[in-house]
Amino acid sequence: MFSLTFIAHGAKLTDENQRDIEEFVSGKLQVSVLFKTELSPNRVIDFSVETNVPDVVLSLVKKEAEIQNASYDIIFQKTVERRNKKLFIFDMDSTLIYQEVIELIAAYANIEDKVAEITERAMNGELDFNESLRERVLLLRGIDASTLWEELKLKIRITKGARELCKALKKLGVVMGVCSGGFIPLASFVKEELGLDYAFANTLGVDDNSRLDGTTRGYIVNGEKKAELLLEIAASHNIDPATAVAVGDGANDLKMMAAAGWGVAWNAKPKVQKEAPSCLNSDSLQDILYIMGYNDSEIASLSA
């Protein structure tokens, strides 16, 4: 059995949206509908279906999701797998938090335009991540690091729904971590804020005068490293990676999505939306719980 879930980007599915959904499910897909449920009235519709051609259905769902991209997301998955999640690994910048940390540092040093341009090209997969990180970090050389992180912590804005989602996942016994191409002081801060179990990110070099020296220290958390860390965390807890979920918005999150059993592209770049197992383009990370098949009442209880 499979689940087909439609999640409105806004407050509700319009009458036209609901007609389009009914027409798509009954007229275009090769599925037998067993039953239909509203996980959230007028906002999230969930169909339990059977099909002998899941790959064909998935292809049609992907195409329809692109057509309806401005209105709602469509998620197709095996019903038995969607609640069986043991590990969640999140990207940080533009996922668990609204900002890109390196751009916050750049704004602090009045070089944000130069850094933002490199960041955007990297996240769209146009630049090698390692090289783009080196270029951006080099621009930060000379910034006073003695008070930098404490000042930036005051500017961090946790994404709507992230606290509630993490609280719910913790109640469900899920292991959680953040693997970020950003920097470890703020990744550790977000870990503590959200009650995560792990935080991995890059370390900026600091000279003898407590100023950033334009380098990173240790390994670089790029796409390959994120996937590697996900698998290492899973192994350390004897978790089957098939029960892991990776959540992110950038091209460097695709490898960890591939390493996990499931992935969620959160308000992601076009390349990521096209390649990820599922997309969520709402304003609350808590909506991931709908992808897992929970309804409003269950979500309220889990997030309390």
Automatic annotation (TrEMBL):
Gene3D superfamilies: HAD superfamily/HAD-like. GO terms for molecular function: L-phosphoserine phosphatase activity; magnesium ion binding. It comes from the Eukaryota. The active site is at D91, D93. The keyword Cytoplasm does not apply. Its cofactor is Mg(2+). Transmembrane segments: none annotated. It is an enzyme of class 3 (hydrolase). Its EC number is 3.1.3.3. It holds the Pfam family Hydrolase. Keywords: Amino-acid biosynthesis, Hydrolase, Magnesium, Metal-binding, Serine biosynthesis. NCBIfam families: HAD-SF-IB, serB. This is phosphoserine phosphatase. It comes from Metschnikowia pulcherrima.
